[in-house]
Write a structure and sequence with these properties.
Elements (H helix, E strand, L loop, with lengths): L9 H19 L10 H29 L8 H30 L7 H57 L14
Helix pairs in contact: 1-2, 1-4, 2-3, 3-4
Length: 183
């Protein structure tokens, strides 16, 4: 595999994890009737940010691992399949287990499987989007590295040609002597 350009995704993770951890539960009804006046609500906020962090870090690790073995140009179909399998297995089991635990911990009468399905689908779609962002950043970085390599190779070629031209135009000591013919 070619050298990979490292990416610094700390800002993306620092903003994305809490954003998903806060937005998805509120948009999908995971809090039920719980309100910010109740301590369980704040425990839920922490729980869902933790869930977002687990999903993000699990899928990030899977993405980085599969990038070590498969690239887009070598086998694009395998790449797509590995990405999709990774997203599903890095998201669905974690989401379902954490949400079932939330329903139990928060004291709900029963698990609302409709909400769990909605959140699981939402999480999976979000992970597909974030994975796409990562892959785009990787490909842009690799393209930039390729351009730098091409520029260096062109510069080295031009310098070699210039050196060859200089070597041809340097007069030797024999060619500078004037030869006189007897009159």
């Amino acid at each position: 595999m070619p050298d990979r350009a490292p990416i610094d995704d700390r800002l993306l993770r620092g903003l994305g994890i809490p954003a998903f951890g806060l937005a998805i539960p509120h948009l999908t009804g995971l809090f039920g009737e719980r309100s910010p006046r109740e301590p369980i609500y704040w425990a839920g906020v922490l729980w869902f940010v933790l869930l977002a962090a687990l999903i993000w870090q699990t899928n990030r690790w899977l993405l980085f691992k599969q990038r070590e073995h498969v690239d887009w140009f070598g086998d694009p179909l395998q790449k797509i399949l590995l990405l999709l399998v990774g997203v599903v297995f890095g998201t669905v089991p974690v989401t379902v287990a954490m949400l079932a635990a939330w329903y139990h911990f928060a004291g709900f009468a029963a698990i609302d499987w409709r909400v769990i399905k909605l959140v699981t689908l939402t999480n999976t779609i979000c992970v597909v989007f974030v994975t796409h962002v990562y892959e785009t950043v990787f490909l842009v970085n690799e393209r930039t590295l390729d351009l730098v390599r091409v520029e260096r190779a062109e510069r080295a070629r031009a310098e070699a040609e210039l050196e060859a031209l200089r070597a041809q135009s340097i007069p030797t000591s024999c060619s500078t002597r004037s030869t006189r013919w007897p009159i």
